[in-house]
Amino acid sequence: MAPTTLSDTPLVTRVVDAALRCIARWGVAKTTLDDVAREAGCSRATVYRAFPGGKDGLLDAVARTELNRFFDRLGRTLDDALDLEDLLVSGITEANRALTSHEALQFLLRHEPEVVLPNLTFHRAELVLGAVAAFATPYLTPHVGADQAGSLAEWVARLVLSYTLCPSEVHDLSSPDDVRRLVRTFVLPGLQSTSKPPSLSKQGA
Amino acid sequence: MLEATYACVARYGMAKTTVEDVAREARVSRATVYRYFPGGRDQLIADTVAWEMGRFFGRLADAVATAPDLPTLLVEGLMYAHRAVEEHEVLQKVLQTEPDRLLPSMTVAANRVLVLIRGFLVPYLEQQPLREGVTVEEASDYLARMVLSFIGTQGATDLTDRSTVESLVRREFLAGLV
User: Fold this and answer.
1) Looking at the domain that runs over B49-173, which CATH code has it been given?
2) What is the mean pLDDT of residues A151-174?
3) Does the beta-carbon distance from A187 to B100 stay under 8 Å?
């Protein structure tokens, strides 16, 4: 991970986690730095010193921390995958699980969608897709080659976003069987799978 | 009144559009506006968003009406929709200046839009021989989501280049179906 300007000391982590609990309860607009300090069990002065950017600085740290955690957990899931299908199924399942069980995120989506949605739609979604592609490419390259890895990652990110933000009666991403069916039916046939390292002649994906 | 609201949003933006503005633009009384939109300004805006989204997809449907088969439908639909979104001045302006006002109502409408797109795809899917075991229901759900995703966000694919879009549709949309 790229080094952050704000080092994630135990104090920062404690305050971020306290903020997450507050947001899960009251949302972003109603959460004050005082609330967070109280929840974190430290003084207002400590919180203000740790986040000179104020509430905005704290929210940035919260977003950054949660993104890092999300990708860390996802990475650990992917490390255990045995083959391409397993990689895709477990990746999608874990991503969906992480998003739907995230209390602060779910509160915001339900009650303050304007905080989250601008980052997950239209042009800003390009950044999300790009970040997921950058993260997933190393995991996918050994299976599908460098040429396809990036576009496959973006493709899967789209599916996670769509099926998570607008749950489907047809494929329930919380069901590994449904996810497997989705992957087998629509994704795998669109790939040229290689089980060798990506030094083959180009086949024209 | 919806047209008037749309015109006001184009002129003043969402935040600054008032019931008075709309009444004046539509040449009706404020009371009339409230009679039709008892939820007031918020309802007026939400309904106008839904209305323009409906018009957008209506224009899209017209643009692809002569598509002879599913692959052509998807390719032409994606290309048209991408261009239409990029060239939609009011949408782009609101996305830039006040996305937090627009997106919640669009995301609520997204479910309806998915149903709409699915309904459009079903006749094409029914006339298309599908791979064994693939149902029209799951195919239409999958394709509608992919279409909507690409309309909103181009990603790394150049949706202005026809052969690129054809390749995309072959791989990511249809590889599992046909």
Assistant:
1) 1.10.357
2) 93
3) no
